[in-house]
Write a structure and sequence with these properties.
mainly alpha, two-stranded antiparallel ribbon, 7 helices, elongated
Length: 252
């Protein structure tokens, strides 16, 4: 006969094949039963987790390995950022060393050409120009890429096209300053960029020297300049930047 031992919560033990004759007895040695272990693990990867992963990938993108290229997604299945992620990406961009270096260079050029003469010259004049230049960039990024996109539920990134004719890609890039994808996945007017540039230009008019303020004219001209530079930047993103950027992940 075959000896089998079963017990709830333990693996079945199959023992010996015994042959007992009439009147014979057999003493079974101690048997150790192994506990039956069955564990099911369900891993749930939410859309927020995926957006976080994509954002971290973007933060590794740099033109020529130096200049931040955080605000472009090359992923075909890009997931909308949460409000927290939009603010964190904006701060990451604004606090990057290149943002300060850019403001320093801009201030140097302005001083050499005596732009915004009301700031004066010397170290003090340079410091004022540097502060104004950095504040311009910071307010523009914060408003256009975090505050308004969060309120209006829009994606502040440039979503790389990469396919189609040169003409279609060029028109797509230029249109990105006035058309964007909403967090709902639908294309819509890019109010975040248009009004963000306008608001940032209006704020900058506050700290320009009184002798260099032109009120509405300066605000509108700076706003248009920001929008135009955004269109030019988008063209570079579509046709050149990816080729000279490091940290770009393969397109999914």
């Amino acid at each position: 006969m075959k000896l089998t031992i079963r017990s709830a919560g333990f693996e079945t033990w199959v023992g010996y094949h015994l042959v007992l004759h009439m009147g014979e007895t057999y003493e079974l040695p101690p048997v150790t039963l192994k506990a039956a272990v069955s564990t099911e693990v369900e891993v749930v990867f939410s859309r927020q987790d995926l957006a976080e992963e994509q954002m971290h990938a973007q933060e590794k993108q740099r033109v020529l390995g130096v200049i931040p290229n955080f605000y472009v997604s090359y992923d075909k299945d890009v997931v909308p950022l949460t409000t927290s992620q939009k603010y964190r990406l904006a701060l990451r961009m604004s606090l990057d060393p290149i943002a300060f270096a850019g403001a320093a260079v801009s201030a140097g050029v302005q001083q050499s050409q005596n732009e915004f003469s009301g700031y004066g010259q010397g170290v003090q004049g340079y410091g004022k120009r540097f502060g104004a230049s950095y504040a311009n960039g910071f307010s523009s990024i914060l408003l256009s890429d975090a505050v308004l996109p969060s309120l209006l539920h829009q994606d502040p990134r440039y979503l790389y096209k990469g396919v189609g004719s040169i003409r279609s890609r060029a028109l797509y890039a230029i249109a990105s300053v006035v058309i964007c994808k909403g967090d709902n996945g639908h294309w819509q007017p890019n109010y975040s960029n248009v009004f963000g540039n306008l608001a940032a230009a209006g704020i900058s008019n506050i700290y320009y020297p009184s002798t260099n303020r032109d009120g509405v004219q300066l605000t509108i001209s700076n706003s248009l300049l920001g929008t135009a530079s955004g269109a030019i930047g988008a063209l570079f993103e579509e046709f050149l930047i990816r080729k000279i950027s490091t940290g770009v992940q393969p397109t999914h």
